[in-house]
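Working notes for the structural subgroup meeting. M.R. asked for a predicted model of this chain before we commit to crystallization trials. I am recording the input and output together here so anyone reviewing the notebook later can reproduce the run.

Input as submitted:
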Amino acid sequence: MSSCFASPETAALPLHVLTPDALGDWLASQSDMVQTWVAASGFSGALGTALMIPGSDGQPEAALAGYGTPAQRARQRFPLAAAVPALAPGRYRLASGDLDNAETEALGWLFSMYRFTRYKDAPEADRLLVAPEGVDATRLETMAEAEWLTRDLVNTTAQDMGPEALEQAVRDLADRFSAEMSVITGEDLLAQNFPMIHAVGRAAAQAPRLIDLRWGSEGPKVTLVGKGVCFDTGGLNLKPGSSMGIMKKDMGGAANTIGLAQMIMASGLKVQLRLLIPAVENSVSGSSFRPGDVLTSRLGKTVEINNTDAEGRLVLADALAYGAEDTPDLMLSMATLTGAARVAVGPDLAPFYTDDDDVAAEVAEAALTQADPVWRMPFHEPYETMIEPEIADLDNAPSGGFAGSITAALFLRRFTEGAARYAHFDIYSWQPSAAPGRSKGGLGQGSRAILAALPKVLDL
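Returned structure, recorded in token form:
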């Protein structure tokens, strides 16, 4: 499967994108046969509808895509993509119609081509689009390719996407872009002072590890840290089956940072990029860490374990502390960290935290232009006491259930001293049901907004 647009040199059917209001004017300029066909077919220009127009030989000679009303389009991230499944397989070029945003609609079209075929063949039914005039086709293809990689990583089951396979995915990326890569695995994590990564992952069949990729030798230092919990049983605080069903996606933070790293390298941004992924499985065995344990982190801060199902912040803490030692100009963490974030903003929005108003403003503005919605949340200082237990420096799971996403973000911030600027994204990385341009399953969130914001944030 290719993320590319159709070549403009290949034959392509003209596609007319029509709103209900524009349909009448368009029909008035068409032949009697076309007018009769459209009327008989009941095509009205409604969002998500399409119609093939036959020629005299019965073969399609054009196609119509319904673009709906402004109110309908406002409810969709990629309105044009809603019509793609209703079109016949083939190649198309935009012939008429005013798109709200040609780049966004073209990207949504590319996203609609995604199929996850590792375990089940999907019929070849591609509907390829010639890149609309004026769009940056290379940039859109770069984003689509990274999105497909992110979705593939999240959708792959844990039996095939454990810490070893996640390491291999990063190694493939390093090989492609001639990046440097190192991995610290198993007992070496203890020897090199990553005790919490080791503690969370030591019960699993595959050894825990810290994956470290570096690329670029000039420009600002950008460090990405992605939560790579390849499966989360909850540990000894075992999740119920209903909550464990999609825990293959608990490495969604890692998948998103891998996709973002690919976009940064493919775009040739003048940065010194670093990607850190603590890759573990939170499993149950005789060596599992326990509720009530007190772990010592890389920074020396002690952490009381009040719930082994709050493991993501533990592995991120060691990785963040390590990344901050390199004094990056910007450090970003991405993680499927808390259910509280989903309660707060639902599955579509990616909440993020930062103390830097300029970073927040640039990311929020970029999110609007990239159809990649985010929402700023507060590092609310009065809640710091909630993560300070009696017998240790920090609590990994404050009781009470209030402000869970905020307290998790505050926990992580304690480990970022040394980074000039820091932002944390508490993402879901999962599409609960299919939507235009977004198939059910793994999903990239926030990475396109970050990519678009980086040049302004870093003065590139």
